[in-house]
Design goal:
The chain is mainly alpha-helical. Helices cover about 70% and strands about 0% of the residues. The protein has one domain (about 5-70). The chain binds zinc ion.
Length: about 80
């Protein structure tokens, strides 16, 4: 295992992707923006989180769960 696999991973990742730690840290802020109106303002203000959610299944599940909890709707 050398830097090559890391580089490979990096090149395949959306450069806006903030990564799991940052996405999870800001997820509640992101959800608070999404809930009032689904006009896409959250995605335009936090493109890094939107990019990460598009690429990361586990974080998307957390996001859906948080969204469901906030809105009181069951998205599952
Ligand atoms: Zn993630």
């Amino acid at each position: 295992m050398s830097g090559w696999s890391e580089l490979d991973w990096f090149l395949r990742t959306d450069p806006r992707d903030v990564g799991c730690d940052e996405a999870l840290r800001l997820l509640h802020v992101y959800v608070d923006l999404v809930v009032p109106d689904a006009s896409g303002e959250a995605a335009s203000r936090y493109p890094g989180i939107a990019a990460h959610l598009a690429a990361c299944g586990p974080c998307t599940e957390d996001y859906q769960g948080l969204l469901a909890a906030v809105t009181g709707q069951d998205h599952a």
